[in-house]
Amino acid sequence: MTNYQNAREYHVDDDEENTLEAGQTIDDKQKSLLNTSKNVVDTEAWHMIRALDKNLLDDALIHSAKMLRQLRTSDLSPKNYYDLYMLVFDKMRHLEVFFQEENKRGRRMQDLYEVVQHTSEIVPRLYLLITVGSVYIKSKEAPAKDVLKDLVEMCKGVQHPTRGLFLRNYLSQLSKDKLPDVGSEYEGVGGQVQDSINFIIQNFTETVHLFSRLKNEGPVSEREKREKERNELSILVGKSLERLSNLEGVTLEMYRKMVLNKVLEVVVQSNDRMAQQYLIDCIIQVFPDEFHMATLDTLLQSCLDLDQGVNLRAIFTSLMDRFSSYTQRRVSEGDHHSNAGVNVVEIFLKYVDKVSEVYGIGTSDNLLINSSLLSLALQAYPDRTDYVNRIISGVASHLSDAPINDDQVVKLTRKILTIPLESYSSVLKILDIEKYNEILTLLPFAERRMVARQIVRTALKYNDKITTVDQVNELFELIRPMLKDEATNETLAEDDWEDFEEEQNLVARTVHLFDHAETDNLFKIYSAARKHFGQGGVKRIQFTLVPLVFKYLELATKIHHSQSEASTSVIKQDKVFQYVMEILEVLANQRPGPALQLYLQSALCADRCELDKIVYELLSQAFMLYEEEDSKVQLDYLHLIINTLQGMKHISEDNYNTLSTKTCQYSSKLLRKPDQCRAVLMCSHLFWPMVDNKELQNSSKALECLQWSLKIVKSCLSNQQILLFVEILNVYAHHFDKKNDKVTTEYLNGMIDLIFTNIPNLEETDETAAPINIFYRNTLKHLRLRKQQDGEMYEDVRFTLM
């Protein structure tokens, strides 16, 4: 082995001065220089390959040296030098293959190793030495560790930043598969993994120094451009770290004692912001997560010693995100103890506080760090709510000193608030997070609404049961933007009604989350919700109060059923219905139609609870709303009223008579005669049959309604009468079938005769003629079928005229 010290010299280039010709730009000059060098490389490489084909080694070495001499230039920018280097690297493959063939033919590599050292110029000499050295190692004529040590020391002879950086990259590339490692062919006599570590770290150290010096090259006016090019070449510096991570023999203990501290020392001492930023990121990316967990404290402590310009936020978040992904991956594999016995969240919390205090990082960076830390805490320690509280409290403290004043901060703040929602399977845990609402209130109204919607969706998704008044108040405080407009001008746009309607439907569904075994507590929960809903204004209460009414009715029914038991309930049914009527009174002012329907529904519930006075009051209110409705919809509402009255089970006879009579009067006051006829016809069902309360049946009044409807038909237009006759026949048939003793076969026969007499008067051109005929034939078909089933009852019904 020759003494490497003979090669240590600092070569002074004798290239021509890099001057610009008249009218020539710097880029033009660089392009010209690069093309000239490439032409020389191509020419000399061609001669080298011809000499190798003829087995003329001396000539091949001469031409290779001339080719490699182009890498001595100081005139090319780092980017252009890289292009030239890649061309030379490709050509040198021919020489390496030749040396390998020579070794196979029995030539000693040690001799070749000494021969190439006679090359006069240092740059070509070292490239040739590395090329021969790689084959020398492979031949195993000498221990790999000795050759590697010799090469890495000799490379110190080139101290020019650009030339030295690429030379060491060449050494790293050619030696990557020849390092002594556990299980490799070079282990043992060739060395141990520790020798490879020492070689790589030594080469890495020199590479970092050269890269750092590169920033001082070139004129000051091109500093920004040179920094950009230097950033593009940073990958050459990280190659050594990749080599270290690929060594199979590097254990956690070895990484802790031999690798990390030395690497971090080199990085910190470089005092180069770009190198430090890139290399710390390389360390994070290339080494296993288990190694980082075990040495996290050391790594983060070194980060505090980096240049002030280094983006610590990027480093911290990169580590946190890796740990989150690692934890998630291991948990999915069934390993719930994957943190190597190290509490990484505690360590991060300590250093995040230090970074905030010492470095005074900006609001955006602070939020980015805390959002990554929050994700990590929820992934690694989902049951440690104290970590979540500490992180959220820290964010709240920071935001109180640095108000939210730009879109990025708003976006990041919202992200921090949504991370727990995505991790927890219960919104109740969100209610336990201190300072959560404090942060939420700092956001603009529109952003708070977005978070509120996600909170509600989470609660509904996991069907969280709200069992206390405090939980109701806390939840509704969080979703306040969905419950109430701001006092400022930030109100909902009218053209966004569909989104608003969807949002309010979400809020309305929250009432189904309220639950408690005791009716008194459930009443308090509903009342708390009612208070919040009541602040929502006209647009909101039409969505939110309606489902609450039904929950109150459900509660009243529950209280009624519990009265027969040993109930200690303080809240009685009357109190519940009092609240219902208060709500309906508010709704009636805004949406009288839906309010009318709710009055009818509430009346049915009150009837089931045997509250006759409340039934009467509710129906009276419904009638008042009916009177104010447009005549176009009154018929539909009459149908609802009639159905409601018909379903009563416990209403008193006096109240029922009053209400049914009032309903009949309404029927006769409808604007259109056909509507009057149909309404009066429907009123017959108020008196027969009364399935749920037979004491209220009155066959005579039912018949009066039927006869009354027939009289009204005479006032209708002739083209309307036939259809009404058929409808009346159907109702007569219904009453007859339900054994109304006042409706006899004489009435059926009379109606059949009446229709039979008038139906020929239908004009064929009338588009209603065909449907009416079909309707009538189907009615007769039904009557025939009933006669077959019950011949005695239908014996006197005349079908001879049909």
From TrEMBL:
Protein keywords: Membrane, Protein transport, Transport
Top-level taxon of the source organism: Eukaryota
UniProt keyword Cytoplasm, yes or no: no
InterPro entries reported in the protein's UniProt record: Vps35, Vps35_C
Membrane-related topology note: Peripheral membrane protein
One GO term (biological process): intracellular protein transport
UniProt entry tagged with the keyword Membrane: yes
GO cellular component: cytosol; late endosome; retromer, cargo-selective complex
Subcellular location: Membrane
Main function: Plays a role in vesicular protein sorting.
Family stated for the protein in its record: Belongs to the VPS35 family.
Name this polypeptide is given: Vacuolar protein sorting-associated protein 35
Species of provenance: Acrasis kona
